[in-house]
Amino acid sequence: MRLFTLHPILLLGFIAACARTDAARAANDKPAESTASAAGAVDVRPLLADSISERADRGRVTGDASATLWVVMASDFQCPYCKQWHDQFFAPVMQEYAAKNRIRLAFLNFPLSMHQNAMPASEAAMCASVQRKFWPMHESLFATQKKWEGMANPTPLFDSLAMAAGVNMALYRTCTTKHLTVPLIEADRDRGRTAGVASTPTFFVGSQTIVGAEHDLRAAIDAALKGQPAKKP
């Protein structure tokens, strides 16, 4: 797994690691398909052809590669304030900026130790991300947070969300049971701490750090876009 260096202000290493050319994406993002041995064991070679961390990393980024402004969200799926921000502001940011290719939007895992199911929720999301289903899983986890936050074992519910998102369940279960995305999640958390994240949600909009669920990011994004160079045609 690669490690990311940090700009003094911005998660520049994280951004640089996620920013790949379309040609590289086409070469690396082959559909994950499972095959089974005669004994019925899951063949994980389709996952290992490109590293789990790289696939999971790419899957949690949305927006056009030519967009010059990055917005990075450091978030915890069990955090009630993260859900509050998500429910109020996420859709407009997606619709007005990411979907129109004005920004590149990325999710940085920052599961807090006080939340018993935050880490398995991050694993569920990132194992879905390996199959390019991060964003549907992201939506489902926040939508059902009240159902799973106190569960002794949220795995069956997470499995049902993953199935609804359309993942290959054999590969997904191999990923979650073997905890294959934990190194990336832990690296996310370490990078976040180094960048000054102390609570969730925390946002990086260009060079600006914004903390708290009460912030509509659109004004900050608009201001940052004015200072960005034009996108490449």
Descriptive overview:
- The model is unreliable at 1-12 and 16-49 (pLDDT under 50).
- With 233 residues, this protein is an alpha+beta fold.
- The protein has helices spanning 12-18, 22-28, 45-48, 52-59, 80-98, 118-130, 134-143, 145-148, 155-165, 169-177, 182-194, 218-226, and strands spanning 61-62, 70-75, 104-109, 202-205, 208-211.
- The protein is built from 12 helices and 5 strands.
- The protein has a single domain (12-19, 51-226), classed as Glutaredoxin (3-Layer(aba) Sandwich), CATH 3.40.30.
Secondary-structure element series = HHHHEEHEHHHHHHEEH
Class based on secondary structure composition and strand pairing: alpha+beta
Count of folded domains:
1
Overall 3D shape: globular
What's the CATH superfamily, by name? Glutaredoxin
Alpha-carbon distance between the termini? Answer: 33 Å
Looking at how many chains there are and whether they match, the oligomeric state comes to single chain
State which percent range the strand residues make up: 5-15%
CATH topology-level name: Glutaredoxin
Give the total of beta strands: 5
The average pLDDT is 83
Task: Describe the strand arrangement of the main beta sheet, using strand numbers.
Answer: 1-3-2-4-5
Largest sheet: 5 strands, mixed
Evaluate the radius of gyration: 17 Å
